[in-house]
Queue: 2 jobs
Job 1
Amino acid sequence: MNIIIFGPPGAGKGTQANFIVKRYNLFQVSTGKILREEIKNKTEIGQKISTLMTSGSLVEDKIVNKLIEDIVSDENYKNRFIFDGYPRNLDQADNLNNLLSKYDQKINIVLKLSVTLETIKKRISERRAIETRPDDSEEIAIKRYETYEKSTEPVIEYYKKLNLLKVINGERSIDQINNEISEIMVDIEGWLYTLTPYKYDFKY
Ligand code: AMP
């Protein structure tokens, strides 16, 4: 079972992805997290993307697509992915489609956490009190929300047309959202299989 989770920055995407990962023994592919590691480790990619990323813009597709292929092609994790932060635009969605069919996989369900900009501003200011991310100021949060609306909403429409989309009200409590996700999962082919604990640690 492969899942995509969408939601604007601050929607609780990471928290919910974490819940799904634990409950269904999946691996979370968070491109934001992978890219932040590249910056932290001062790799060649990290140096290239640092300015762009801290300004709230998207990193070049070529860079992100390559990172995704390395992961999707890894047999150890086949059919156990939750994509968080990818795809972010239609070209990336096309790329993911091609990669998944190349490696004999597919997307089973797409979840969208729906949250207003007001709630996001409030959550980001709360998050800043406990965790420092260079792209977490209110101004950058608005920029990232706008980037999300502009580039990612068309991708969500794309999955809606494929009948894969489930919209979840992200304004409610974490537990309520967990429960709704669990109910949705029961209808998804392959969820029982992923209840089996898995022997590999995720290396990405
Ligand atoms: P996130 O943690 O998902 O909010 O991502 C943080 C930042 O990483 C974004 O604002 C982008 O600069 C970059 N990023 C993450 N995922 C992608 C992606 N799929 N395509 C391009 N840039 C990305």
Job 2
Amino acid sequence: MKTLNDFDFKDKKALIRVDFNVPLNEKFEVTDATRIVSAKPTIIKILEDGGSCILMSHLGRPKGFQDEFSLKHIADKVSEVLGVEVEFVADCIGEKAEAAAASLEPGKVLLLENLRFYSEETAGDVAFAEKLSKLGDIYVNDAFGTAHRAHASTTIVAQFFEGKKCFGNLLAQEIESIQKVMETGEKPVLAILGGAKVSSKITIIENILDKVDHLIIGGGMAFTFVKAQGGKIGDSICEDDKMPLALEILKQAKAKNVQIHIPVDTIAADAFSNDANKQTVDITAIPDGWEGVDAGPKSIAAFDKVVNACKTILWNGPLGVFEMESFANGTIELGNSIAEATKNGAFSLVGGGDSVAAVKQFGFENKVSYVSTGGGAMLESLEGKTLPGIAAILE
Ligand code: AMP
């Protein structure tokens, strides 16, 4: 696996695919610069080597050129975060971009215009990728968020950099974190899957059963498993058509010696609303008119034990409807348990969608080992798929 350390960037122009798809407010100000901050170590390392950086990214989903999606809006923020002057060029291929790249001096940063102003980007067009490739000497992919897409700048362009391509620090960290959970992690290995639906996580469950010793199934997903085993779940969310599959998963887990942990109690609400009435009930005896919306105290205690007995922990999906304050407790307590296990030496990875939002919202970001930057890319990795953006560097 080639990383930045395999190259000397002195007097070289690095063409870096970053993920600067940041949120902007109505004044076109960046409201969350996390993605820019995440790319900083890669950029600074190359500049310190004596190289220059040409940054390419997409922003939003424009249809052709649309001023509101121009990366010119973020140039000042990029400059502020990096602490380095950033030049912006209003195209990503062609004469203007080539001239700006050619005159870029060592230690300098150039930000290209939004790649998706060209439909060739998402189409993975080879001729477009070749035009991009003219801008730099070494291709660096540091955009995990788009690594599952075979787009021109994330995948196709790599073929024009035979022996001159590598992962940036961020992408390398993402790959290492996933490998730790899926391959090299210290045992016992635990995966915690929560969230709303079994159907969106089936492939992950099937893939992960071969990798883990323990699997916690929480959140809305759990009710399909509870009902399939004969429990009474009241008005809780459930995918009836997935009940046979849930039983099959339980059977497979047994055969593979994976211990499955399902909540034993739940906080039931009489409406899907923050100020609904609530009561703690056995998860197999939820009254009609009530729905399970959060993990109950016995489940939280049981999960805490499992989490603290494990050395490698993956967390994907909340244990309850955490967006509503009244039903966030289970998710927060799980975060506390994982933080404690991490403090005691476990490796913990949080990835894929809503658990990342929960971790940030409740302040666990610095108390877990790694928080993934890619939603879809993370889910596909957990499904066992090889991401095209990663494969293109390895080829
Ligand atoms: P996912 O994107 O699959 O990880 O699902 C995340 C969503 O699951 C969040 O919006 C949660 O509110 C929701 N969720 C978690 N637990 C429950 C539950 N018991 N009932 C309904 N929705 C839930």
